[in-house]
Amino acid sequence: MLHGLLASDYADLEYALKETERQRREYAARYAFVCLDGDGDGYLSVEQVEGYDLFSCYAPRVLHAAFAAWRWASGFPGFLNIDDFVRFVEYAEDRGSTEAQRFWFSVLDADGDGRLSWQDMRLVYEAVDKSSARYVVSFEDLMNQIRDMVGQQQQPALGFTCAELRASKLGSGVLGLLTNHNNMLLQRSTAEWGRGEYPL
């Protein structure tokens, strides 16, 4: 009985911690919106969002594609209101949810065929600014890592579907690598990746 009570307390505490962290992130996003909205019109353009630290390492191509794929609460396509921005940040910070993974998958699926092929992934890889990076992971090493993460052994060049990505349970990491979240592609050299030192 005592064990059951302790387990219940643990579950309640874990939920409370997650909820506290969710609220912290939401308040941080709302504060960031106010700071970014310099003209005070209540809307953010893609150029204004590029100025936010969280998205500064995302390639402009990826952010523009994300804006094109977004479902606008603002009613003005191309401009995020505060509710849009909070959800946009949530999708970037927590890529483990079904909704976030479907969204980022659609953003990266350049040809819209329902698969992330090597061609799709090369487009976003080439879009990342590597000019001032000390370390840059090669595209081949990136593909090898993603293939291992998704568990794809047959015809890897054809890529994978969103369902296959979710089934791997590593979708958050894969999407983080492809969007260069937190500069994941520029924090390790190819040699370090070869030793299994991945920035996840």
Q: What is the makeup of the main sheet?
A: none
Q: Give, in order, the helices and strands.
A: HHHHHHHHHH
Give a count of the beta strands, DSSP E runs of length 2 or more: 0
Q: Roughly what percent helix? A: 55-70%
Mean pLDDT: 88
Beta-sheet strand percentage? Answer: under 5%
Global morphology: globular
Number of helices: 10
- Gyration radius, in Å: 19 Å
Kindly name the structural category. Answer: mainly alpha
Unreliable sequence segments: none
Distance between the termini: 39 Å
Structure in a nutshell:
Helices cover 57% and strands 0% of the residues.
Task: Give the topology.
Elements lengths: L1 H35 L9 H4 L10 H10 L12 H12 L4 H11 L9 H10 L11 H12 L11 H6 L3 H9 L10 H5 L6
Helix pairs in contact: 1-4, 3-5, 5-9
Descriptive report:
With 200 residues, this protein is mainly α. The protein is built from 10 helices and no strands. The chain has helices at 2-36, 46-49, 60-69, 82-93, 98-108, 118-127, 139-150, 162-167, 171-179, 190-194. The N and C termini lie far apart (39 Å). The model has no long low-confidence stretch (mean pLDDT 88).
Please supply descriptive tags for the structure shown above.
200 residues, mainly alpha, 10 helices, globular
